[in-house]
């Protein structure tokens, strides 16, 4: 029973860490989206044409960082846990 309680406590801690990671990931993505939008806007202006290649590189790097954050967020999504009681003796004898 003590082992079960410890496992429940550990899963609760992992859940909290996952929730924090999701919040942090979303908070990182919000300003990145804003910066990306302004870079797209600037790259379309004629008086900024000489920097267009730089804007493209910056947008690519923002997209790469966003992809990393998205992958990280996919790891924090709720997982369905299907806990069942099992007879360990039956498992070991099988």
TrEMBL record:
Catalyzed reaction equations: ATP + protein L-histidine = ADP + protein N-phospho-L-histidine
Enzyme class, first EC level, given as a word: transferase
Molecular function (Gene Ontology), one example: phosphorelay sensor kinase activity
Entry EC no(s): 2.7.13.3
Coiled-coil spans in chain: none
Residue span(s) of domain Signal transduction histidine kinase dimerisation/phosphoacceptor: 16-81
Pfam entry (one): HisKA
CDD domains the record matches: HisKA (cd00082)
Signal peptide boundaries: none
Descriptive protein name: histidine kinase
Organism: Syntrophomonas wolfei
């Amino acid at each position: 029973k003590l082992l079960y309680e410890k496992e429940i406590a550990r899963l609760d801690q992992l859940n909290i860490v996952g929730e924090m990671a999701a919040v942090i990931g979303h908070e990182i993505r919000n300003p990145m989206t804003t910066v990306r939008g302004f870079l797209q806007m600037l790259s379309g202006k004629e008086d900024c044409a000489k920097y267009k290649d730089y804007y493209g590189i910056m947008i690519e790097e923002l997209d790469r960082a966003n992809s990393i954050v998205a992958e990280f967020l996919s790891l924090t999504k709720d997982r369905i846990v299907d806990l069942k009681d099992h007879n360990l003796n039956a498992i070991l004898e099988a």
